[in-house]
Design brief:
The complex is a heterodimer of chains A (348) and B (206). With 348 residues, chain A is an all-alpha fold. Chain A is built from 20 helices and no strands. In chain A, helix 14 runs antiparallel to helix 15 and helix 18 runs antiparallel to helix 20. The chains are: A mainly alpha (348), B mainly alpha (206).
Chain lengths: 348, 206
């Protein structure tokens, strides 16, 4: 620190208004410079001597001030009071904590308002599904036995929304043998509801060939999954020729029927699979296997009559479908009223 | 120099905030803390006890009336002495008190005692000789302060009586801090010359 800078800070040093670093530097300068030391000593001595004596204010001065304050508060005009109130309120409102709390309350309030459950709203969620694929629709829209049985024959095709257009055309046309088979099936009291042969899309082509057993009355617990896959495979008899080496129709369904027979989920499922397998055997020309399956069903009360009829049909050589017949031929043959299933249905 | 007593400026602002919210006891505490230095500052400026009382009371009354305007970024003492200084200037302008009576003039209307007579004795236990000497010193101090130019006396009083820092004095007087320091330096130089004969004796008294 030089003399010029010391002169600038000497008063701050005298009244102790310097920071520690500058103060130490100034003190060092007074120790090194005789002029600075003399100047600082003179000022300090003057300050020590020149203590200005203070007078005590009058004793009643404080009381007078407080009294004047009370009067001033009482006489404060309304505008000043309002202004003071607004000033105090604004000083509170401008605090960050108050502002953050207000924002938080606003967020919580708006969330509650938006998330509030409206009165009268349904508690459960409703889902409306549209545009179900056709292949799935076949499985889902299985016609229930009772409504089908109750619908008159003439109204069957016209009233059913789920019927295929082809079925509606058939319903409006003149009665054909297929219509008769449909009518006979509809008249059955307990149709094979879960059997794929009963699905609307198969009504015309394969109606007569499908067994019409009353599994619902026989056990009611027929495992739907056990029979759906082989039945779907059996339905694919309509597959065109040359579609590929993959087995289709009864050829594909038979192993699955046999699997169900080997490991049935219930006796009713085993009997149903055996009856369907026997029908497939007959279609494929495996007469002996078909006969064995029908014979095995003779001991089952629900299938005994139909098995006997099927055995009788097998005994007549003209009715048995030839092995290796085309699906169309097989379907046409199955549509005949002489089919065991078609014959069995009215018996129930 | 002046015994203004320890005042916590931070507490002053807190008290003022309380008073703004309606706590009158906070204002009473502020009055208790600042009445004496404000009174002495005005007294040394106007050299009249009655004017000092009136202006001190008026200064606190202005605080009451403008309490809502007080910003807590400022220091209360700076605000208060700014009000008191402005009131002193107004009073001088109105009553032509520049030709004020001397400290030797009667302090009260009855004219019985002077200001020096009512000054407290700094050495009450001293012997008569010392007491006489001390009275002489006090008179010299008061005379020296009275003889200071107005701007230097103002800075001196704000520094020694009101105990304001130089930066705050600059705010009160509306001048630069370096100017304040310069005025203070000149005031001390004048006082040193006026009191040089008592320097050693004053140290011995303490």
């Amino acid at each position: 620190m030089d003399a010029e800078k010391f002169d600038k800070v000497v008063l701050d040093l005298l009244y102790d208004e310097l920071d520690e670093l500058t103060r130490a530097s100034a003190i060092r300068h007074t120790e090194q410079s005789g002029r600075a030391k003399a100047l600082y000593a003179e000022l300090r001595a003057t300050r020590e001597v020149g203590v200005l004596p203070l007078l005590d204010p009058p004793a009643d001065l404080e009381a007078r001030i407080l009294e004047a304050e009370k009067r001033a508060r009482a006489e404060r005009p309304f505008r000043q009071r309002v202004g003071a109130f607004v000033s105090i309120a604004a000083s509170y409102a401008m605090r960050p904590q108050i502002g953050m709390a207000a924002v938080l309350l606003l967020m919580v309030g708006s969330s509650l308002l938006l998330l509030r459950v409206k009165p009268g709203a349904p508690g459960a969620v409703q889902v409306t599904e549209r545009g179900v694929p056709e292949s799935d629709k076949e499985f889902v829209a299985v016609p229930v036995a009772e409504p089908v049985a109750a619908i008159p024959q003439g109204d069957l095709g016209a009233s059913s929304e789920r019927a295929a257009p082809r079925s509606r055309d058939l319903a409006k046309a003149e009665p054909t043998p297929e219509d008769k088979a449909l009518a006979s099936r509809a008249a059955a009291p307990a149709p094979l509801a879960r059997e794929p042969a009963r699905l609307p899309s198969d009504d015309v082509g394969t109606e007569g060939a499908e067994p019409a057993e009353g599994r619902a009355s026989a056990g009611g617990g027929l495992a739907k999954n056990d029979m759906e896959a082989p039945a779907a495979a059996a339905r694919s008899d309509d597959r065109p020729e040359g579609a590929g080496p993959e087995p289709t129709g009864c050829a594909a369904a038979l192993p699955r029927y046999e699997a169900v027979i080997a490991h049935p989920s219930s006796p009713a499922a085993a009997n149903a699979a055996r009856f369907a397998a026997a029908d497939c055997y007959a279609r494929l020309g495996r007469v002996d296997s078909a006969r064995r399956a029908y014979v095995a069903l003779l001991s089952t009360p629900d299938y005994a009559a139909r098995a006997r009829q099927a055995l009788a049909a097998l005994s007549s050589p003209g009715d048995a479908p030839a092995a290796g017949a085309t699906p169309e031929a097989s379907g046409a043959a199955a549509a005949k009223p002489a089919s065991p299933a078609a014959k069995a249905a009215p018996e129930r | 120099m002046a015994d203004t007593g320890p005042t916590s400026s931070a507490a002053d602002e807190a008290l003022m905030l309380r008073y703004q919210r309606g706590d009158t006891s906070a204002f009473a505490e502020l009055v208790r803390r600042h009445k004496s230095p404000v009174y002495n500052f005005v007294l040394r400026q106007l050299r009249s006890t009655s004017a000092a009382e009136d202006i001190t009371q008026e200064a606190f009354l202005r605080v009451v009336q403008r309490a809502a305007e007080f910003k807590h970024e400022a220091r209360f003492s700076t605000w208060l002495y700014t009000i008191a200084r402005n009131l002193c200037i107004d009073s001088v302008r109105k009553s032509k008190l520049r030709m004020h009576p001397s400290l030797d003039a009667p302090a009260n209307d009855d004219g019985a005692r002077t200001l020096l007579d009512v000054l407290p004795d700094r050495a009450p236990g001293a012997d008569v000789g010392r007491a006489v000497e001390w009275t002489k010193i006090r008179r010299s101090i008061v005379d020296a302060v009275e003889a200071l130019p107005e701007d230097q006396r103002e800075v001196f009083l704000l520094r020694e009586v009101a105990n304001l820092a130089f930066r705050e004095i600059a705010e009160v007087t509306g001048t630069a801090e370096n100017t304040v320091k310069s005025r203070m330096r000149y005031a001390l130089e004048r006082l040193r010359m006026a009191l040089s004969e008592f320097e050693e004796y004053a140290r011995a008294l303490r």
